[in-house]
Amino acid sequence: MLKYSKAIVLIVFVFLFAMCNQKSKNEAGNETILKGAIDITVDETVKPIVEDQVAVFEGTYYDAKISLKPKSEAEVVNDLLNQKVKVAVTARDLTKEELERFEKSKIKPRVTPFAQDAIALISSKSNNDTLIALKSVIDFMQGKADSRIKGLVFDNPNSSTVRYMKELAKVKDVPNTGVFSFKTNDEVIKFVSENDGMIGVVGVNWLSQPSPNMAEVIKKINVLSVKGLNDNKYYSPTQNDLAKEKYPLARDLFIINCQGYTGLGMGFSSFIAGEIGQRIVLKSGLLPYKIPSRKLKIRNEIINDKE
Q1: Within 10 Å of residue 3's Cβ, how many Cβ atoms?
Q2: How far, in Å, CA of 90 to CA of 42, rounded?
Q3: How far, in whole angstroms, is CA 81 from its chain's centroid?
Q4: CA 273 to CA 198: how far, in whole Å?
Q5: pLDDT value at position 24?
Q6: 89-115 b/e (C-beta count within 10 Å ≥ 16 → b)
Q7: Do the Cβ atoms of 151 and 192 come closer than 8 Å?
Q8: Residue 264 near residue 272, CB atoms below 8 Å
Q9: SS3 state of residue 206
Q10: pTM for this structure?
Q11: Domains of the chain, start order
């Protein structure tokens, strides 16, 4: 009887393994690096730059369809770990613990850096001061009162900007008072534009490439220049200051591919990190991971167009 039961278990196991293997082959078979359909979760704070990349990619490769799912950083990483999604765009690399979880599941993520982003601090135009010391923000995150800051405004309690500022301030939780959160970066920008003394914390891409309905709202806010902890000068979240490694709130962006086969995730990752993708990053106001090449045309003689 025991041998019979073991035989049944073995047959069921082989059947399930074959079905899973067949499913994997079917997924890969209907998809290549330039065709097929895929869902990609993206950190909500960097959604605009990824939308630009998808628009050009789909416009170039008509058989490719990418559906973006903007979520908070915590949700993006959880979806990857729980295998609810195979490709994601994040504002940080995977941790050692996360990589170990993937390894236990026999998954080897391909992590591709493609841009450097900046976390921007914004205030209402009614506030004439366009400078802020990072120490003041850190003190506020640590629960210390600051007369120049009435409140800090984030997009989401689980967002990458909240995590970034908590790590910077070395705090486990944000203060119970004076810290506000909404659902999107656009809501943060609108709230700050209408409330003097509030400091918004947003991805700079939302300011450099605002949606049409936010164009007028953007005009009502100041993008603050920030003095770092070990510097006496103030720097702005611009490509120039990012390239010089002067802006104190810079972070790298990554696309993480856990497909495990040569599919659309690999194609899109290669596109973002390639020549065209890096030019899109450059035009967006962020700093490309690799500066795109420039072709110069050298003439052997001067042509006088005035004759």
Answers
A1: 6
A2: 6
A3: 17
A4: 36
A5: 44
A6: bbbbebeeeeeeebeeeebebeebebb
A7: no
A8: no
A9: helix
A10: 0.84
A11: 31-116+252-288 (3.40.190.10), 118-249 (3.40.190.10)
